[in-house]
Amino acid sequence: MNTIIEIPGMHPVDQDTLNNQQITILEEKGQSKKILLGNTIYDVLVKSFDYEQKTAVINVDGYDFKVSMQEPLDQLIAQLGFLKANKHSVKDIKSPMPGLVVSVFVTVGQHVEEGDKLLSLEAMKMENILKCPGTGVVKNILVKEGDSVEKNALLIELE
Predict the structure, then answer these.
(1) In terms of domains, do 97 and 147 share one?
(2) Which residue has the higher pLDDT, 146 or 73?
(3) Selection from 67, 118, 124 nearest residue 94 by Cα
């Protein structure tokens, strides 16, 4: 199996296909890159990258694209059905680190989908968005804006 790269509205591309086209990074300044693909030069800006979800938002010549990657292990886990079981087993949203609750994006009783923003947590001067790991309904919100929380503190209960 090869790594699959998906861009909404386009056919998935496997890593070998991209590798065979010889992408060359001509210039790199922080998140900005100038790449050569085939005979065309593109200005690419990596706006965000979520290592856990293996997704990125990139801007290519002024157009934003959400890119997701599925490595061979990800594909196998999905084929075996482990992702479905994992999504339904998470009922408690806990703080991954100590911090300050900046914003709460949901309300009790609200239906949420995987990837929906639940709340914003500031830690070490960086704002982190906690997203929903699966589908559910917000049962209880145990924090409010301005609250300080410790690592593993229960923030939101889902049902």
Answers:
(1) yes
(2) 146
(3) 118
